[in-house]
Design goal:
Number of strands: 13
Strand order of the largest sheet: 2-1-3-4
Helix content: 40-55%
Radius of gyration: 36 Å
Largest sheet: 4 strands, parallel
Shape: elongated
Order of helices and strands: EHEHEHHEHEEHHHEEEEHEEEHH
Number of helices: 11
């Protein structure tokens, strides 16, 4: 008795056509019983497309046939389009199985080992590929048309949620009440220039930011989200198309305004892009903070009134920190970090009021309050007398 394995597959779209796993499995088992084939194992693929061979159970099938080299005689499928929807993949995998001594059998199709049978088999494989490519093209055309009217047809990124996919009106994306505030705060922190990308991501992660699967957001994913214009309400969709054997990056929509409320405003998004590009934003509130130089861009030069910057200088034995003026023609433009920060601390101590004035200040405040209260009580009494006269 010939030893056989069965492969059944459905995708989400095709489940609506009653090509269920149970229907395929039953038909394959009946075929094996009718042909006298002994079923060794059944591989079930759920919700995977046959565009490529990178399918979980399909790869397990190939590995199993390789390990059982010469011991498995047939692979039974419901139809050839269950096995592959690409002509090249179909023949390559079939050739690979044949090296293991395995032949492909279809329940609904019979291809005799003759020139006419092989031609018919190739035509059926090409028809499956043509049908798959035509459906993909129609899907892409529909998505492009939706983008033209501002509808988002892809999965929303972290911080946003998909809504209204089955409606032609209304927004297609809303702000996620859980992750949305985290992403909005992340954009605002980056735009302030006070924190680096890793510092912001660490802060948001500690506060509870995570993916839809409950995992931490990676730095690369966070960077891509900061670059995504959908958070500012714009649709920019990139796709790759093979032209003359090369993958060419193309755009479906170039900054098309979406039909939903943005998470952040245009100015914040533009500032974040400038910061990520390593350039200084055109906003007066932007200051790149550094923890080792807290007075950087805060203290001004006493000669030219320009804000001081700071840096480390390497000596023979160690490094030395200095604050210095950004204007090269300024003559007095350098002061050591300990000296300037010590002077700043002394200046703050000089601004602190003496404790002996606290009691006097408290008495003055109470005295003023009592006078205002007596004045208010007098006004209340006068108004009451006026009311009585009017009555």
């Amino acid at each position: 008795m010939f030893r056989t394995v069965i492969y059944v597959r459905v995708s989400t779209e095709e489940q609506t056509k009653n090509l269920s796993l149970g229907t395929q499995k039953k038909a394959c088992l009946e075929y094996c019983a009718r042909e006298g084939l002994k079923v060794e194992r059944i591989f079930v693929e759920e919700g995977e497309s046959a565009k490529t061979t990178k399918r979980t159970e399909f790869q397990k099938l190939l590995t199993y046939c390789c390990q059982k080299n010469g011991q498995i005689q047939f692979v039974v499928v419901y139809r050839t389009d269950r096995f592959a929807r690409n002509t090249t993949d179909y023949h390559l995998v079939k050739y690979q199985l044949r090296k293991y001594g395995v032949e492909l059998r279809s329940v609904k199709e019979d291809f005799p080992d003759t020139p006419a049978g092989r031609l018919q088999e190739t035509i059926m494989a090409a028809t499956s590929q043509f049908d798959n490519e035509m459906r993909a093209e129609r899907t892409v055309d529909g998505m492009k048309a939706a983008h033209e009217i501002g509808r988002w047809t892809h999965r929303a990124p972290l911080g946003l949620l998909n809504v209204g996919r089955n409606s032609s009106t209304g927004p297609t994306v809303i702000v996620d009440p859980v992750a949305g505030p985290f992403m909005k705060r992340g954009f605002q922190l980056i735009a302030s220039g006070l924190y680096t990308q890793r510092q912001v991501l660490k802060t948001l992660t500690e506060e509870g930011l995570c993916t839809h699967r409950g995992k931490h957001v990676s730095p690369h994913s966070f960077y891509k989200m900061l670059r995504n214009p959908i958070y500012a309400g714009y649709l920019v969709v990139h796709t790759r198309k093979r032209i003359h054997g090369r993958l060419v990056k193309q755009k479906w929509a170039d900054h098309k305004r979406g039909n939903f409320e943005p998470l952040i405003d245009d100015e914040t998004f533009a500032t974040v892009q400038t910061v990520l590009d390593g350039r200084k934003p055109k906003v007066t509130s932007y200051v790149r903070n550094r923890s080792d130089f807290p007075l950087r861009h805060f203290v001004k030069c006493g000669f030219c009134q320009r804000p001081l910057t700071a840096s480390w200088s390497r000596g023979r034995t160690s490094k030395y920190a200095y604050y210095h003026c950004t204007y090269p023609k300024c003559g007095q433009n350098r002061v050591s970090k300990p000296k300037l920060e010590s002077a700043f601390i002394k200046y703050l101590e000089g601004l602190q009021p003496n404790t002996r004035y606290f009691k006097l200040f408290n008495a003055i405040v109470l005295d003023v309050w009592k006078n205002k209260r007596e004045h208010a009580n007098g006004q209340i009494a006068a108004l009451r007398q006026e009311i009585n006269k009017l009555e």
